[in-house]
C-alpha cells in the first residue's frame, strides 16, 4: 500500500469513532473555556509585578492537554481491542509504515485543533482581560498562539508513543497524567528540584507560551526538549510494535 492510502485509512479509523473526536473537541472547549473563565475573573489588584498577560490567556491548557493525551492514547489502544491490529497489519504488513502514518494523523489533527485552540484562547482571553490585555503584535504573542498548536500536536504524538509501548489505555494514562500534570507543579516549587523538572515534557514545552523566557529555558529551546521527548517515546513505541505479536 502507498503512504497516501495508509494515511486515508488511518484518518478513517479516527473520524468514524466517537471517543477520539470527543477528546479533540474537549481539547478546544476545555482550554478555551477555562482560560476565558480565568481571564474574566482576573483582578488587577491580585496581579504580581511579573504578570504575563500572554501566558495567562493559556491558563486552561494544563486541563486541555489531558484531553490531548486521551486522544493520542485512544487512537492507538482502540486497535488492540478485538484483534483489530491484526487486521490492520494484514492490510499493511510494513509495521513502520502503519505506525508512521498513524502518528502523522494523530499529530496533524492535534496540531490543527491546537492552532484553533491557541488563537481562540489568546484572542478571547485578551479581550476579557480588558486594560491588561494585549494584541497579537505584542512580543511573544503570535509565537505563543502558534506554539500552543505545536505543543498539543507533540503531546498527542507523545501519548500515542507511550500507548503503543504499554498497549492499554489505563496503563498509558496512569503514567502520563501524573507525570505531565502533577510532577512539575508539585515538586518543582523548590529551586533544586526545578532545575530538573523544568526539562519534563510539559514544563519545557509550555515555555513557548511565555512572552519572555523563564529562568534561562527559552521558548524554542523548551519546545525542542518536548520534541526530543516525543521522538524518543515514538521510537520506543515503534520498537515495541516491531518486536511484539499483534
Automatic annotation (TrEMBL):
Superkingdom: Bacteria
Protein name per its UniProtKB record: ABC-type transport system involved in multi-copper enzyme maturation permease subunit
Alphabetically ordered keywords of this record: Membrane, Transmembrane, Transmembrane helix
Leader peptide range in chain numbering: none
Record's keyword annotation contains Ion transport: no
Transmembrane segments: 21-43, 55-76, 97-124, 144-166, 173-194, 220-241
UniProt keyword Membrane, yes or no: yes
